[in-house]
Design goal:
This protein is of the alpha+beta class and about 290 residues long. It has helices at about 5-15, 20-25, 30-50, 270-275; strands at about 50-55, 70-75, 105-110, 120-125, 130-135, 135-140, 145, 145-155, 170-175, 180-190, 195-200, 210-215, 220-225, 245-250, 250-260, 290. The strands form 3 sheets. It has a 7-stranded antiparallel sheet. Strands 8, 9, 10, 11 and 16 form a 5-stranded antiparallel sheet that branches. A hairpin with an 8-residue loop joins strand 3 and strand 4 (about 120-125). The longest helix is centred in the N-terminal third of the chain and has 21 residues, at about 30-50.
């Protein structure tokens, strides 16, 4: 008998004598569901304790964050509280575990009191600080925050950054390459710890350009968006969809770290559009502010 035939005969004989329960072993649904549950629990724990993704839906943090940016937010820098748990599964409660206070210039995730939405803003005031805004200029503890005028920024116009006339009046222009851009007026601010960052200032006569003075309570921080005239932040009331003043530290859910990728809004069912809609230059952008 040829070796191949001998092997086939052995396999056939083994199959005939294999126990029936081994051939038709039922699925252990309890173990399958248990494994899936443990996997979901591990993902939730990582999201809640270490890091989670975050999507930018509004223009309030332009020019540093654009609609369509996807970020990584670290959950541990300021300790853990009820907002740390993803999807807001816990009810509001006081206190934090291993808590610390954000630094000037940090970009943080905040949940307004009495709400479940997450806002992303920059830390401008810490506990005990007095904040005042006059004609768009930030005054911190009686001293005007250092400002310097920068060259206008030309932001390419796309679906996620359309440069609407209602938001950026008379700032849409056509470049030498024939493409449309939003010509944004940039002011660079430097906070007392040396952290500096760019802001957009459309002028001195917008609704939130005059505010305070306001003293940040203990255990709170004061937050503002970098797009100063298009940000509902600590200067705006809850009725105006703002943060309604300083935010309790236990309502700070993490620190923005890096842009992983960004989409211009043109993505559709065609897989080719997934690649074409990428803003390649945004990937890897650090969100930790520079120090002068």
């Amino acid at each position: 008998m040829a070796p191949e035939a001998s092997d086939a005969a052995i396999e056939a004989d083994t199959a005939r004598h294999r126990p029936a329960d081994e051939e038709h072993k039922p699925i252990n649904w309890f173990e399958e569901i248990r494994g899936l549950f443990l996997l979901l629990l591990a993902v939730l724990a990582f999201h809640s304790l270490v890091a989670k993704p975050f999507y930018i839906p509004t223009m309030s943090m332009m020019p540093n964050l654009l609609v369509g940016d996807r970020l990584v937010v670290s959950k541990y820098p300021y300790g853990w509280s009820w907002v740390s748990v993803s999807f807001h599964l816990l009810p509001p409660m006081k206190g934090r575990i291993m808590g610390s206070t954000p630094e000037y210039g940090d970009i943080v995730i905040a949940t307004p009191q009495g709400a479940s939405a997450d806002y992303i803003k920059r830390v401008i005031g810490r506990p005990g600080d007095t904040i005042e805004v006059r004609s768009g200029r930030v005054i911190l503890n009686g001293e005007e925050v250092v400002r310097s005028v920068q060259p206008n920024m030309l932001l390419p116009v796309d679906i996620n950054s359309p440069c609407n006339a209602s938001d950026f009046p008379m700032l849409k222009m056509r470049g030498a390459d024939g493409k449309f851009y939003c010509e944004l007026p940039i002011i660079r601010e430097t906070l007392p710890n040396g952290v500096s960052y760019n802001t957009i200032d459309l002028g001195p006569d917008y609704p939130l350009d005059n505010y305070g003075p306001y003293t940040v309570p203990a255990g709170h921080i004061f937050l503002m968006g970098d797009n100063r005239d298009r940000s509902a932040d600590s200067r705006a009331t809850r009725e105006e969809l703002g943060l309604g003043g300083a935010v309790p530290l236990e309502n700070i859910g993490g620190r923005a770290e890096i842009v992983t990728f960004s989409l211009d809004g043109s993505t559709n069912w065609n897989p080719v559009s997934w690649w074409e809609s990428l803003r390649g230059e945004r990937a890897g952008t650090s969100l930790r502010a520079d120090k002068d």
